[in-house]
Amino acid sequence: MKRITVAAVALLCAANLPAITLEECYRLVRENYPLIKQYELTEKTSQYSFENAAMGYVPRIALSAQASYQSDAVAFPDEFNSLLKMAGVEMNALPKDQYKVQLEISQTIWDGGYSKAQREAVKAQQEVSMLTLDKDIDALKTRINQMYFGILIMEANIRTSMYMDTLLTSNMSAVETAVANGAAMQSDIDNIKVELLTLRQQRTQLESTLKTYKDMLAIMIGRKIEDDEVFEKPEIQLVDMSQNRRTELMLFDARIRQIDSQKKMLDVAVMPKFALFAQGWYGRPGLNMFNDMMSRNLTWNGIAGITMKWDITGFYTRKNDRHKIDLSKRSVEVQRDAFRWNTDIQQTQIKNEIDRMYEVMESDDEIIRLRESVRKASETKYRNGVITLNDLLRDITNENNAIVSGSLHELELLKNIYDLKVVLNQ
């Protein structure tokens, strides 16, 4: 019951003070984590990659120019030229200096599904990148739990220390009276002073540890924690052991989908591709070779049609590549199974610890009540000279230890519950 009284007094004193909650810490650490900016970078990178992948059916336009001189050119044999001269026709050889300015346009009709597969691969990669960041951020919750519940434990120990300080100080007056009346020795006063000094020394250490926890938590959540801020004790919550929502499991599934997209890319890479094309150029020689033999003028020329390209070299390694992809997928599945196995062991361990704490806590209030009763009786006995001061100090220490253990058990239970929630991502 004493634990309830101490907690109630603390709550009344903190009623009008600013408070910080565990859920708020979860939110702030996510907002303050430096890698949170990576989300935006990953999203923009994926957007650009997706837009590029969608360009598969955009017309391709190429402008080129060429000037050349060759050692020989097409010409009629001398005998045939002699016959042409007899007919009054003179056909020169094609000029050895040739010029061309060309514009080429091509439009893909069907790329074998490559553009679609590429877009799906980009989406799969983005999902993997995002879930990887989620996994890293989720891991911060465990560190937040350590800091937050460490603060609650330190505060509880400090409150109990102050309660014991009050008990020792109040008994000091009784001892001083007994010494004045000759019923006790000066050493009794000295013993209590030693206990008080030791207690206050320990409290200084607790306060230093509390400040360290608060400073570390402040860095993680990205804001200053004021001295008068109260850390709310989280409520006991039920955890569904059958619902494992760990980001790592979703990441494994995303990696499998990414591998499947790679397999699809491998399949479409060996498909034929069809496209329309058109070429137009100004230069010499042109399509009419005989006209170029008779004239040295530059001419306009053009050609259009349909092309089919089928690169079959991918068939040479396709079988082995598919086997490698299947092995990669199996490797991820094995890692996922191992992660589930480890998680099941971890959650079972925490669940058993939670059950143990529930059982232990059932007797905490009764132990504290009995320790308080024994201490009060010892105070009366000491005043009546029945027991020594050491006996009284022992009973005061036992009551203090019982209160500390009761608070510690409750906070350990809460920490285990919230650690289990982190393990299952609930």
Automatic annotation (TrEMBL):
Keywords: Cell outer membrane, Coiled coil, Membrane, Signal, Transmembrane, Transmembrane beta strand, Transport. It is found in: Cell outer membrane. Residues 1-19 form the signal peptide. It comes from the Bacteria. One of its GO terms (molecular function) is porin activity. Pfam families: OEP. GO terms for cellular component: cell outer membrane; efflux pump complex. The keyword Ligase does not apply. InterPro entries: OMP_efflux (IPR003423), TolC-like (IPR051906). Belongs to the outer membrane factor (OMF) (TC 1.B.17) family. This is TolC family protein. It comes from Candidatus Cryptobacteroides faecigallinarum. The lineage of its organism: Bacteria, Pseudomonadati, Bacteroidota, Bacteroidia, Bacteroidales.
